[in-house]
Fold these 3 entries.
Entry 1:
Amino acid sequence: MNFNQIRYFLAVADSLNFTSAADACGVSQPALSKAIRKLEESLGADLFDRSAQRVELTAFGRTMRIHFDRIEDNRRKAVDAAKVAAKTSIEPLNVGVMCTVGPHRFSPFLEVFRSRHPHIEITLHDVTAPVIPELLLSSTLDCVFCARTTKFDQRFQMIDLFREHMVVAFAKGHRFSNQETVTLEEIAKEPYLDRLHCEFRDDFLRITKGSGLELEVAMRSEREDWILELLKTGMGVSIMPANSVIPGSIAHRPISDFTNERNLKLVMTVNATVSPMLIALRDDAATFDWG
């Protein structure tokens, strides 16, 4: 059985005339008749009642027509999809993600964007806040998801995505788990894991110092994944954005006397919208339900 045999059968089933079906399929009538005979032999039953006056589908033929219609429909869809894929080239997009942006809220957007734009190949780059303008202006990156405390100038355009609070994170079972909120004084009594790339780090250190509190730093790291792993093992506590906390592995609480929050933005240069790929990313990010 092959696709041509099915196509010939369906043509005869539609016209109930072998000559007309052959013309429609662009083959000779003997070739079409021979192909249908081979199809019947492979199936083990006649598909048509043939006589000098007329051609009719057998009961078996009517049953098989339902199945062959589905096969032909799927064949056409596959051919159409192949044509689109052949014409569509993969377009690269270099996207920066600030190293303090947690994946918990960000990855669902990437999943939806990928499903809507499979021809766009995204490469994610880990970036820190100070180098973002240079990376965008040099076209090293096409856009960046970030939360900077300093403002961007008129060379950049920004899309506000969502806001998130800073919280204190700690291992499950830590004594903070029994509290609704935690104070800076209580945090200062715990070993502290210092996130070196946190954009609020200087503000936090200034506030604690101004309050007469001295942090007992157990470990410092530029890498968020290391800090999260150290939190998980109970080595200390840390201040971080709520969405950086991995659900189920570590816990967090609001800080009663430190209410900083940050606004996550999508940033690109003002000239970046000449790219259809960036327009698609910008529009999808702007309309995505970030929760």
Note: The radius of gyration is 32 Å.
Entry 2:
Amino acid sequence: MTPRQIRMGLAAAAVIAVSTAANLLLMQPREMRSPRPDRPYRGLSELPGTPSTTIGAVGSVVRETTAVRVETPVANTNDDADANAADLIRVVQQALADRNYAPGNTSGSLDMVTRAAIMAFENDRGLILTGEPTLELLAELRSEAPNQRSGRVTGRQSEHAEAVVRAVQQSLSMLKYQPGVADGLVGDATANAIRAFERDHGLPQSGRVSGRLVTRLSELAGRGQLASR
């Protein structure tokens, strides 16, 4: 083989190698090249009075969307604890999804839709509304005991639950559903406004905060159908 033939062979091999690498990169599934968004809905951050919209793990708080209160990220002090918290959120979300409570995602990202789904289950179970993914909640989700709700649940709600209710109340008010004062409590006016919204948007009429309700409100906000504050 002549030197010229050797050079031509090496050049051809190089071209083939580059082409193969390019094809592998271009033809592999899209989800392997770039991460997909956690949430299948848009506009969550546009809801009025929204608390921090995403908490990936303990101590990693995303900036809030209103000027009322803004929290800065907190440095993680225990990576194992953060991982365990995210795992718990993920398991709770899957349990909610299995019970058809529409948590929005099952990736371990704790947002307002997941909190609203937790609150819907707590409401149906006769529990005080917290919106918190806890081991106690997981035990309830895994229990075969029937729901024990008898009328509206009374008791001190958590700060997170009240923030979710206020966001729903302010959103419904912007849509002219007259939920009453945005006090973070689901009274008669708020329950009636939720039922009217659910009826108009083809949702089961429950009169309670739920993952489906917050998802639908966030979709409207994403399309600019909720006026900005």
Note: Residues 3-27 form the longest helix (25 residues).
Entry 3:
Amino acid sequence: MQNGSNKSGASSRWGDGRWRTPLPTLGCEISDEGISIARWSRSSSSLETAAWRPLAAGAIEASPLHDNIQQPEAVQRAFAEALSSLGVTASSAVRKPTDAVLVIPDQAARLFVLSFDTFPDNISQGLPLVKWRLKKSLPFDVESAAISYFVQGSGSELQVVAVAAPQRIIWQYESVAEQFGFRPKWVTLSTLAALGLAPGEDERAPAVVGDAGRLIAGVLIAKYNPPWFTTAILQGATLRLFRTVALPAGEDGLLSPADVLGSVYPSIAYFQDNFQGTVTHGFLCGLGENSGNVASSLRDELQLNTSPLVEDFDGVVSGMDPYRAERHFAALLGIVRERQIA
């Protein structure tokens, strides 16, 4: 989504028109857990300054079916505190509006991977087709939705990745940012943004030869942003699957390996049944101190070798441990890294 409007391109390395305008050098993520704000330079592949402030449980409840900003004053206070820790006062930010990237929770929208025999290049022709396909699948009115899409593949492998959310939900997140002088020029989902951190196609597992010919192995990306756990599967340069479920953490604040395994397995089974390939490697994000135990479980039960999606987050945020930095800033860092290869 770009500024909550019905435009094409908008989600990952697979959005052809994404970088027609310069990438803003400021971004924020509004999640159920808190507010993340970061700056970077146009030539940077890392975040230069970053801050995060927590939100009380229930301040934000991500959903496309009801208001997400449940406690506006608490959200505004956390936003102001995050800005202040970067040396920016709320009043000065309002006086000097700045273009920004806005990241919202995965659960605030719905993502679909749609297959087409042919698809028009012109958005005035393509958007009605996407709306028609989504009409019976969305739990909200398609005519009042913000819809963004991009086309991936060619020939018989033509697919459209479409993201949809009610306009009023997008506006709620945008209005929070706008109160502090942010002009959202691009709105995206947390895990979709973090896909920019996934290794390039040539760095993944090689293709193998099977009964159906040359098969490209699938790669799993699993990201936890409490309470939402999202699995995405890439096959080469193609996004095959994107699934978000509620997965509350235990009393220790961590997900159990069994819960992760139960959530990941259906995605892998669907991919293997529908795309004649195997998932050989996974990248984990946001699982904190239990990442090692989860990785061992996935290896033992699913023969899935895993690595951290972010190899090194030391020093990204002063005073924040690497696990929290990874969870709260992977999406923004993914946007910056994606820009380097666009």
Note: The chain has two domains: 1-196+318-342, 199-308.
